[in-house]
Amino acid sequence: MDRRRLITLGGLAAGGALLPGCAAIATAGGRSGHSGHGDHVGHAGAGAGGAATGDPFTVALPVPPVLKPTAVLGGIELYDLSVRHTTTEILPGVSTPVLGYNGQFVGPTIRARYGRPALVRVRNELHHPTNVHLHGGYVPAASDGHPMDVVAPGGRRAYHYPNRQRGATLWYHDHSHHMEAEHVYRGLHGFYLIDDPAERDLRLPSGRFDVPILLRDAQLAEDGTLVFDPSPNMDRRTILANGKAQPVLAVAARRYRLRLLNASAHRIFELRLPGADLVQIGTDGGLLPAPVPRAELKLTPAERADVVVDFGRLPVGSRVVLQDTTGPVLAFDVVAEAADDSRLPNRLRALPALPPATTVRDVALSFNPGSTTFTINGQVFDAGRVDARIPLGSTEIWRITNRDTAFNIDHNFHMHLVQFRVLDRDGVPPEPGEAGLKDTVAVPPGSTVRVQATFTGYTGRYVYHCHFLEHSQIGMMAQFEVV
Fold first, then answer.
1. One domain for residues 411 and 331
2. Using one digit for the tens of pLDDT, what is the confidence trace for 101-122?
3. What pLDDT does 232 receive?
4. Same domain, 331 and 366
5. Residue 420 falls within a domain, yes or no?
6. Residues 426-476: tens digit of each pLDDT
7. Does one domain contain both 426 and 302?
8. Smallest Cα–Cα separation from 366: which of 267, 447, 461?
9. Where among 337, 370, 397 does a domain terminate?
10. Per-residue pLDDT tens for 160-170?
11. Does 372 lie in the same domain as 263?
12. pLDDT-derived band of residue 52, with 50, 70 and 90 as boundaries?
């Protein structure tokens, strides 16, 4: 491995290891703890040791623009994305160098349609390789964005997305090996939503009342520069919603669908909305069988949750604030009355039947302090090694165990190509909010999660890994091949 192997849990860190063209900033985080939770909400100028927000709830929440197809040829929608250096205002009036798809810190949203293929053409304008992975996408291996399959500087690549999966909140991000954590941290992330005509009769909130919200954390220097320090005492205490610190969304007094995504490399969000009800309707792979009221919503990196909030139950002039354990994240101001023809039905989408499984595989996630690497089944990622060969069309159960009890390290598990079903956690059936189709699942220290997946449609090599990206980039990743 390269310089990224220096990242360890013992504090041996590649602090300030930055991309070409970005200012080098030496940091010394003053907080330990692996999940990224803190207890301080500061203001602009707090520096690397504290959260930087500016005055809270003064900046409007930006909604990422929907990318229009460049053309439609033979029923295939063509989209163009460029990957380039750009700047943004995370804090008002402060310019921050970032990376962006089409020059946007949260990339443009692609709204695809079930059954209608898309071709996403990517141009790399960076000085180093990159690629694009459609997270949660059911795609051919050549278009999966395998970590070793990168686009060279100045190069181009076309990714074919068949969109043969039901409606879901997916996202796209960089997956170039050893650089994925830093690239995503610096802005290479965006929503990919699959609209499903079969959901129209449900009359869920739609149009401008269907709002994607990308949540993540950041560490900002005094001058507003993003600090990338992947050590365990990282101090990313500035929480962003769609690229802004503590923004506000003006809402009408009616139902909204909020598509929440944890795009952090490391942080676990534990979200509450005091004063209003969160009702979860979807997870990674789309709609749940039925709505699930949630007092708290926990999202590990890359997990998604679609929720419905009825602001019509609040008087005009009200404010409710989405809270994390670190403090306020996003405010909602009810500013006007509004007609509302949406509804929240009692039933959403029936789950497909579980076919009989023919194979059971064990996946152990652990940190190796001797080699300062994260491993799967005791091995670091090797692009020349296939860890599982899976016959096309077969159904398997995977038992994922987090063995990092000594260090109390959280992990999660993400599998490419397929959506899976969570069977149980330590023998206990999943909670209703995890009962739908998933592609990423939390695996706390000492726990075992069983998932079941059916491998159909495509052959080739794909990866599975921990989506705490600073873990996967130094070893906690493996390959399976569908044959």
1. no
2. 999 999 999 999 999 999 999 9
3. 61
4. no
5. yes
6. 999 999 999 999 999 999 999 999 999 999 999 999 999 999 999 999 999
7. no
8. 447
9. 337
10. 999 999 999 99
11. no
12. low
What is the C-alpha separation between 149 and 51, in angstroms, rounded?
36
In the chain, how many domains are there? Answer: 2
> In this structure, is residue 227 part of a structural domain?
yes
Angstrom distance (rounded) from CA 7 to CA 374: 10
| 473 and 381 both lie in a single domain | yes
Provide the residue range defining the domain that includes 243: 202-337
Question: Across residues 50-75, what is the average pLDDT?
Answer: 90
Structural contact between residues 409 and 367, judged by C-beta atoms closer than 8 angstroms? yes
Of 304, 337, 370, the position where a domain reaches its end is 337
Domain assignment present for 213? yes
Cα angle, residue 306 at apex, residues 469 and 214 outer, rounded to 5°:
45
Residues 213 and 293 reside in one and the same domain: yes
Rounded to an integer, what distance in angstroms lies between the CA atom of residue 34 and that of residue 402? 15
- Which CATH number is 208's domain given? 2.60.40.420
Query: In terms of domains, do 420 and 366 share one?
Result: yes
* CA dihedral for 187, 98, 62, 59, sign (positive or negative): positive
Does the residue 187 lie in any domain? no
pLDDT value at position 201? Answer: 95
Taking the CA atoms of residue 439, residue 444, residue 448 and residue 451 in that order, the dihedral angle to the nearest 10 degrees is -10
Nearest Cα neighbor of 366 from 11, 9, 15 is 9
Question: Is the pLDDT confidence value at 3 over 80?
Answer: no
Short-list 338, 290, 284, CA closest to 310: 338
| 255 and 330 share one domain | yes
pLDDT, residue 40, reads 28
CB 283 within 8 A of CB 436: yes
